[in-house]
Amino acid sequence: METLVFPKDFLFGTATAALQIEGGDTNNNWYQWAQQGHIKDHSSPLRANEHWKRFKEDIQLLAELGVHTHRLGLEWSRIEPKPGTFSQEGIEHYLEEISLLRKHTIRPLVTLYHFSHPLWFEEKGGWENEESIQDFLRYVRFVVEKLGHLVSDWVTINEPNVFLSYGYVLGTWPPGKQDSQAMIRAARHLVLAHLQAYTLIHELRKKEKEPTLVGVAHHLRVFSPFCQFCPLDHLASLLNDYIFQGIFLEGMGRGRFLPPLGVGYPMGKGRFQDFVGINYYSRDKIQFVWNPPELFAKRLVAKNAPTNNLGWEIYPKGLSLLAKRLWKTYRLPLFITENGTCDKEDAFRPQFIYDHLKEVSELIAQGIPVKRYYHWTFIDNFEWIEGESAPFGLFANNYDTQTRTWRNSARFYQEICRTRTITQEMLSRYVQSAYHSLS
Ligand code: FCB
């Protein structure tokens, strides 16, 4: 394993989402989903990490970890509990939290929407309703007016493709539908909401000194044919790529609508992102199957590939493949807005971190401007329908006592943040067992 050295201006960070850590909120779609019994281990985001109460202690940990930046989400339902009625308490809480991050010189990257929204929004039909765009913009305006002096970096929407796939194709996430027409409607609204929010945030922050950076955190996967010699597997991989991520990259990045979202440029041609956010976890091997009209492909794991505790293939090379393609297409700075793994024993997480950072370091050496890396995640948290059973954290959490514990990975990451290097000596101390031998 090689020594890695990162540039002085490269930022290391951690990423979280409000619903997954805060706890204590009953006014959102995911609380309701949990109440309806959809979470595998019957846990609820009502508990999570009690971060809402314990944020000072958590920021202290982040400061000790030494991250340069932290990606945090805001809970819309806490800020706008009723349509058009904003909560002073909600926004002041975030003001305090973000001020504290800044006090520790941790640069905030704020996510405005990360899968969860107020119940009133869900009841109106969520993103399927055309009014969702105006509802979202009203919330964005309020937030940026209140927090814009402290926050220059924004993610408007996290992983629209994941939200839509689980919510409208598989039906395992709220709103629990299997309805492709509804999905396309919701997708259009999500894309338009981003395009308008992009312009609005720039407009609201135009007098601020620090340049405004707005983007999307895209969930991007590598799709490759299960069988190298099967043309239909090749075709199905390309189609998966196009439908799952291509239309969102083009729609949100350039305002260009491609079928089935539409055609043309509804907001005019332009640039609607200042960085491309990549949430990268895994690769899928695609096998063509003929089962019209719903399914044309099966997503499989490559034979003998290393996998994490959720069965996701660990495929570091994929990060480079995607980053190169995005750089070629958009010529904008790349932020790894999420990357991490589910590892209960913390057995292979250090190796996972090293292998992905090695890809980042090679990309930088090739002149590709990867500027930031956000590890998913700071602390074990409520992992959507997996509930409390899928630990992705650098820190472990005991949910009964709410005790946070440093994992080996956290110590490793701490040294990476401090020194912006990974030396042989660090590798020998932290990277004990490779996942290659575990799978
Ligand atoms: C991403 C989500 C994030 C977390 C990780 C494991 O798709 O954005 O909230 O669940 O996966």
Characterize the structure shown:
This protein has one domain (4-437): Alpha-Beta Barrel (TIM Barrel), CATH 3.20.20.80. It is α/β, with parallel strands linked by helices and 439 residues long. An eight-stranded parallel barrel has the order 2-3-4-5-6-7-9-10, surrounded by six helices. The longest helix has 25 residues, at 180-204. The protein has helices spanning 18-21, 29-35, 51-65, 76-79, 88-103, 119-123, 132-147, 160-170, 180-204, 231-254, 317-330, 349-365, 408-419, 424-430, and strands at residues 4-5, 11-15, 69-73, 107-113, 153-158, 213-225, 276-291, 295-300, 334-339, 370-375, 395-398, 403-406, 421-422. It is globular. The structure holds beta-D-fucopyranose. Beta-D-fucopyranose binds at residues 17, 20, 158-159, 162, 219, 279, 338, 376, 383-384, 392.
Count the beta strands.
13
Structural class: alpha/beta
Strand content range: 15-25%
The CATH superfamily appears as Glycosidases
Uncertain residue ranges: none
| Total tally of structural domains | 1
| CATH arch. level architecture | Alpha-Beta Barrel
CATH domain class name: Alpha Beta
Distance between the termini: 20 Å
Number of helices: 14
Q: Determine Rg (CA atoms, Å).
A: 21 Å
